[in-house]
Amino acid sequence: MPGGLFFSYRCQDAGTPLAYDPIMASLNAAQCSLIIGTLLGDGAMRCKRNPLLEINHGHAQQGYVDWKYEILSEIVATGPKIRPSGGQGRLAYRFTTLSVPQLMPFYRLFYPAGTKIVPWLRLTPLALAVWFMDDGSKSYRAVYLNTQQFDIEGQQRLVAMLEMQFAVRATLNRDKQYHRLRISVSSVAKLKRLISPYLLSEMTYKLP
Asked: 73, 88, 117, 194: which has the highest count of C-beta atoms within 10 A?
C-alpha cells in the first residue's frame, strides 16, 4: 500500500490476516473492531510497560460507554464512572482498560512515535460503526467524520481506505483551520447499510 504498512489485525474468528501478532489472539473480533474504531475516533492510549485504552465520552452518552465496557470488560478492572470534564460543570462518563500486552500491537500501530496517527488498516463494518458513533455528524443529506485530530496525510489515508475497502467515497472538507471527512451524498446510503446492524439506537440521530 502507498504510504506505509497495510495492517490486517487477526483475533479469534477474525479471518485470515495479512499480518499477525499472536498476543492479539486472546482478543475476539468484536473487541478488536471496537478498539480500532475507538482509536480512529475519541479513544486515547497511554503506555508505560504495557498500554491502556481510555474511553471518554460525554455524560449524555452513558449507554454508549456502557456498551463499550460490556465488550471490553475482560480487560477492565473498574467500570465506567462519572467524572468532571473541562470545567463549567461539564461531566464525562469514562473508563480505562487495564495495562495489558494484548493492547501493544494497537499502540504500536497508532502511536509509533508517541502521537496518535492513522495507520493503514483493514476495517470491519463494526469498526466503521464505532468510528462513526464516536465522530460522525450530519448536515442535511451529508455525513461528516470529525477527523480534525489527524493531519492531512492521515485523513487522506482514511479517504483511501473507505474507497478501497467499502467503495464509500469521501473528500476532505475544511472546518475553520482544520479539515474533516465529508462522505459524498452518493455514498451515504451505502454507509448506512454497512453500519446499521451495529448502530446503537441512541446514535441514529447522527444519520440524515
From this structure: 194
Q: Which CATH architecture has domain 123-206?
A: Roll (3.10)
Q: pLDDT by residue (tens digit) across 163-177?
A: 999 999 999 988 778
Q: How far is CA 91 from CA 86, 105, 164, in A?
A: 8, 31, 39
| DSSP bridge pairs for 81 | 94
Inter-CA distances, 147 with 39, 96, 131, 137, Å: 11, 22, 10, 11
CA-to-CA distance for 148 and 145, rounded, in angstroms? 9
Determine the Cα angle at 186 with ends 38 and 34, to 5°.
15
pTM: 0.88
Residue 167: how many CB atoms within 10 A of its CB?
Answer: 9
Tabulate helix, strand, coil % of the chain (nearest 5).
Answer: 45, 25, 35
Residue type, 62: Q
* Cα(57)–Cα(63) distance, integer angstroms: 10
DSSP SS3 for 137: strand
Tell me the fold of 6-110.
Endonuclease I-creI (3.10.28)
Q: Which residues of the chain have pLDDT under 70?
A: 1-25, 86-87
